[in-house]
Amino acid sequence: MAQARGASGDKRKWIIGIGAVVVVAALVIGGVIWTISDRNKTEGKVISPGETTSALGDDVTQKRDGVVVTVGKTGAKATIDVYADFLCPICGEFEKQYKSQVEQAVNDGKLQVRYHMVPLLNERSSPPGYSLDSANAALAAADAGKFVQFHDALFANQPEEGKRGYDKAQLIELGKNVGITDPAFAQTVNAGTYDQQLNTAFQQIENDPKLAQDFGGGQRGFGTPTVTANGTIVSWQDPDWLKKVTG
């Protein structure tokens, strides 16, 4: 009888052990599936264009010059240069904080903004490449006169750093949704027409000592977002920085 009880106990331990392994395996598999799903949550998503009509007035121009897009009225008193990456989360915060103030200054004829899209985090999306693809698409949108709408929609629906960005098909669909009808837009996005120019400009930006900042711990270099006025870096963390720039 003792042997029978012992065998029964061993069997119960064996069953419990197998059950524990199954539970752990299920948790691991579930965790992996959730991680992949979370990482790829932008897949198949339609990027919301928000208000397809910009808050900027009709007399505000949007002009591409190389890989820089200037937005504003001719004769504006002040000009700022904004260097940003569509994947950069701090750039997204900058947009949330100051978008309306910048738009108002532009509408009032006080400010022109020169936008530099930099692929700083190009290796930080999964798969890599979103920073460059989105920058190229934004320049294509500028060619169609829809840069601001496209730019604002990408930041309003910003992917997370380290996760999947938006693919070219999604960027093309956003272009349609903000009112771009010229077939050249899709061709430019698919071909990566401005990729080489963007990469060349980015190398120059990274090596420009005037754009280098101290990040603490002895680290110094270029980062996003960077805002300059008259060739000098502006401390945009100062709530009154725009008032100081526009006078």
TrEMBL record:
Species of provenance: Amycolatopsis eburnea
GO MF annotation: an example: oxidoreductase activity
Residue ranges annotated for the Thioredoxin-like fold domain, each copy included: 69-239
The family this protein is said to belong to: Belongs to the thioredoxin family. DsbA subfamily.
Gene3D superfamilies documented for this protein: Glutaredoxin
Keywords assigned by UniProt, alphabetized: Disulfide bond, Membrane, Oxidoreductase, Redox-active center, Signal, Transmembrane, Transmembrane helix
One family name in Pfam for this protein: Thioredoxin_4
Chain ranges passing through the membrane: 14-36
UniProt name for this protein: Thioredoxin-like fold domain-containing protein
Coiled coil: none
Annotated InterPro entries: Thioredoxin-like_fold (IPR012336), Thioredoxin-like_sf (IPR036249)
